[in-house]
Amino acid sequence: MTQSARSGTAPIVLASGSPRRREILTQAGLDFVVIPPQVEEVPLPGEAPLALATRLAAEKALAVARQVGPGAGLVLGADTIVVLGDRVIGKPRDAEDAVDMLRALTGCVHRVITGIAVADPARLVAHTGAVESSVHMRAADDDEIRDYIALGESLDKAGAYALQGEGGRRFVTAVEGSQTNVIGLPIEETRALLDAARAAVEESGA
User: Fold this and answer.
1) What is the pLDDT of residues 148-173, one digit of tens each?
2) Closest Cα partner for 140 from 174, 178, 101, 111?
3) Alpha-carbon distance 10 to 4, whole Å?
4) Buried b / exposed e across 120-147, counting CB within 10 Å, b at 16+?
5) Which residues pair with 79 in a beta bridge?
6) pLDDT the model gives residue 86
7) What are phi and psi of 114, to 5 degrees?
8) Where do the domains of the chain lie, and which CATH numbers do they carry?
């Protein structure tokens, strides 16, 4: 997928295959191309959730920056995780795993953390940040959860739900903080990080 580049400006390279992140960037009016990264998303022993999301975002951005090489636009990487207490909840393995995840999340407040990173392909330097939001979910019984899982919306989502879809409409009662963060990319903070990375490139004379 390629958005037309503005005159004199190389498009951003989005190091993600996420349709939600593409939609957020498109709605924000940003020009970009998509190159999904090949990065193993495995936490390190004892790694805190914030550190995990930030590290994976940087690894994704740098992996694609090495791939495209100097002359390409800035590379944007992101990683979104759901955290309940101290437990990091990733994407479900299957429908039953999705049911277990939503059993744990409904009736509780959980955190959603997105690490973001912008890498300069010329210098292979990544600027990083992270955004956290709190999501309140109402209680739900197994029949409600299974009815939702049967829609097929859950299996590629961290936490097994989509805020912007039926998951948000059926279970979420409130979001504290950035809603686009919960969807997969905090757009205001992403814009600020892109601006900071561009300023660093200009300062370096690259």
Assistant:
1) 999 999 988 999 999 999 999 999 99
2) 101
3) 9
4) bbeeebbbbbbbbbebebeebeeeebee
5) 115
6) 87
7) -115, 120
8) 12-204 (3.90.950.10)
DSSP annotation string for 42-81: -PPTT--HHHHHHHHHHHHHHHHHHHH-TTSPPEEEEEEE
The residues that are catalytic are 79
Does residue 61 carry a pLDDT above 50? yes
- Return the percent helix, strand and coil in the chain, to nearest 5: 40, 25, 35
Tokens of 95: 């429908």
Q: Model pTM?
A: 0.90
Q: Residue 135: phi, psi to the nearest 5?
A: -120, 125
What is the model's pLDDT at position 10?
A: 84
Q: CA 22, CA 31: separation in Å to the nearest integer? A: 10
Q: Which amino acid is at 41?
A: E
Is the predicted pLDDT of residue 3 greater than 50, yes or no? Answer: no
Q: Which helix (H) or strand (E) holds 87?
A: strand 87-89
Mean pLDDT of 24-28: 96
**pLDDT average, residue stretch 60-83:** 95
What kind and span of H or E run contains 118? strand 109-120
